[in-house]
Amino acid sequence: MPEEIIKINGTETEKVSTVLRTSKKKRVAIFCHDSPDPDCIASAEGFRHIAKKFKKEVQVYYGGEINHIQNRALCNVFDISMINISDLDERQIEAHSEMLKESIIVVLDTSMFLFGNCQGPKILMEQNVEPDIIIDHHNYDISVNDKVTFIKKQTGSCSSIIFMILKQLKVKMNERLKTILFLGLLKDTDDFKHKDIITNVDIDVYNALKNNIDFQKYLRVTNCPKPMALIELKAKAFNKYIKQTGNCIVCGVGFIPPSQRALLAEICDDLMQYDEVEKSMVLGIVDEGFGLSKYFVSSFRSGGDTVDAHEFVRKIFGKDGAGGRRGASGSTVLLDDIAKHTIDRFSENVEKKESYFNLLYQAYSDRILQEIKM
Description:
By secondary structure, this protein is an alpha/beta fold. The protein has helices at residues 10-22, 38-53, 69-77, 90-100, 158-168, 175-188, 200-209, 215-222, 229-239, 263-271, 309-317, 337-345, 350-373, and strands spanning 27-31, 57-62, 83-84, 103-108, 133-136, 149-152, 242-245, 248-256, 279-287, 294-302, 322-324, 328-334. Helices cover 41% and strands 18% of the residues.
């Protein structure tokens, strides 16, 4: 646990309160980072309750996809309402863009907005728009405009910060919200296994929530059923495309449809359960179909404090395509037109498609393992 004592004090809570209380805008627009994880989703749900205390209408937005099976289960089990910006048509984009001009903009679980891991909102607003409030717990060196109410505490989860603000504002938290925040806290701290990032605040929040959750719904999220496709992908990853150097394993799953993107994270998590495996990465190509986009994708997990997963993936795949947190990260890189047409040309030839993937897999797996050794 970090030696520094982290405090979420009344001054910071008052800053959030002041923005919500003094603004004449009647709406709050909460933006998650792209492809939000449980901590981000839980933080957004918590801030929804904060905004409602001030009689504000609330809408939560996110870009990308909610990929991981448990992340989708969290939204489904608790009926969490969020708008996927990618699903909006032109008419809806125009309508939401107009509403956002009269909304308090809140960004959660990231210090980035309209760049980096929060690019989804770019289609809804101008590039020079500044958020009103940012609340984050990541150790990113990001410059933020002085006019922005910026709360940044290096806790193990953003959910912990939101819980403390809710508590200090005396917002009533029902069992549903407590369970959602508890899941967010546990996910970002890897069930409290990441001792290097857990703070006194996280421990206090954990103790406050652990006996006040809906345990049945908690189990429905954490023990949600897995699709049969996972068996096939694991067989390919563990038998055909697998390399190991020391405590790091890099696997590949070949070509997959968009619906199976989340399964890469499942395979990564599974690999981390084996003895002596401290880092795992799974690579694949998402093929949306003939004539449509293709993406080179990855999921990465890192145990302990030896490698910052997010920074490592950014180093390998570039800043724009990477997202995640210290122990878990991933990337989505759009392949260019030449690659897209080449893959389409091989659409009826499985062997050639696999050969194409193998070229990418060999090149990137070698580089990944080399970087790990360094």
